[in-house]
Amino acid sequence: MDFVQTITLSALCSHLLVGLSRAMILFVVTSGMSFVLGVLRVPNVAHGSLYMIGAFAAFSISNLFGGGSTGFWLALILSPFVVALVSLIAERSLFCHLYEREHLMLLLFTFALMLILGDLVKMVWGADYRSIMAPEYFRGSVTLFDAPFPRYNLFLLVMGPLVAVGLWLFSNKTKIGKIARAAAVDREMVGAIGINVSWVFAFAFVLGCFLAGLGGALVAPTVSITIGMDHDIIIEAFLIVTIGGLGNMWGAMVGSLIFGITQSFGILFLPQFAIVFPYLAVVIILIWRPTGILKSVW
Question: Within a domain: residue 106?
Fold first, then answer.
C-alpha cells in the first residue's frame, strides 16, 4: 500500500521528463553513430571514446575561459570541433584505407582504436574525476506537474529535437547530404560522375563524431567526467541503433526514447532493478522485430 501511495501523477510526470532528457543525450550520441553506419557501413566502437573526449575537452575549455556562462558556451561550441579534428586525423590516416574490408575487421579495428583513445585520454587528463558547473541560469529547478525538474534538463529537452531537425535538414536538403546518401547506396556510381567519394565519406565520419563530441559536452554538467564513461554509452548506443534500425536516424530517436523512459520508470517502480528495464525492452523489441522498429538502411 505504501508503495502504491508513493507513485503519484506528479512523480510519474517528473520521471517521464527525466527519462526524456536522458533520451535526448542518448539521441545526440546515437544519431552520429547511426549516420556513420548509414553512410559508411562502419560499426564504430570508438564512438564512445570520442564522446568521452568531448566531455574532457569541454572541461578543459570551460576552465581555460574561467568557467561560468562564457566558459560553458565556449566549451559546448568548441569541444565538438576538437572531437571532429581527432576523428578527421583518424579517418584520413586509418579509416579511409579500410572501408572495403569486412565488417568484422572494421569492428576489431575500431575496438583497438577505442583502447588507444582511452589511454590517450588518461595520459592527457589523468584518472581523476572532473566536473563542469552549468551557468547560474541553468542551476536549480522549476516546478512542473507539482514536482521539481532541473532547469538544465529542460535545455537538454530542447537540444535533442534541434539536433534531429538539423541532421534531417542536412541529409535531405543540402547538396553534400544528398551526395552522402547517394554514396551510401552506390559509391561507384557517385565516383563515376566525378565526385571524390573518399572526402564525402570523411565528411560523413567527421559529422557523426562531431555529434558524439556534442553529446559529451552536453552531458558534462550532469555527470562526473572520468575514464571509463565511454564503456556504458557505447553499449547503450549500439543497442539503441540496433532496435531503432541500423542507420535510421529516426530509429535512433525512437530507440533513445525507449531506453531513456524505461530506465527512468524502472528507477521509479523498482529502483534496485532499474538497470534491467531498458535491456528487457531491447529483448522484447528484437524478438518482435529482429531488424529494428524502423527500416534499416543496410
Answer: yes
- Residue 110: domain span: 19-229
Percent of the chain residues past pLDDT 70, beyond the cut: 97
pLDDT tens string 254-282: 999 999 999 988 888 888 888 899 999 99
Asked whether residue 248 is domain-assigned, the answer is no
Residue 236 domain-assigned? no
Average pLDDT over residues 144-154: 83
pLDDT at 6: 56
Count of domains in the chain?
1
> What is the average pLDDT across 28-44?
89
Q: What is the pTM of this model?
A: 0.92
Would 259 be classed as within a structural domain? no
Separation between Cα atoms, residue 69 and residue 138, nearest integer Å: 10
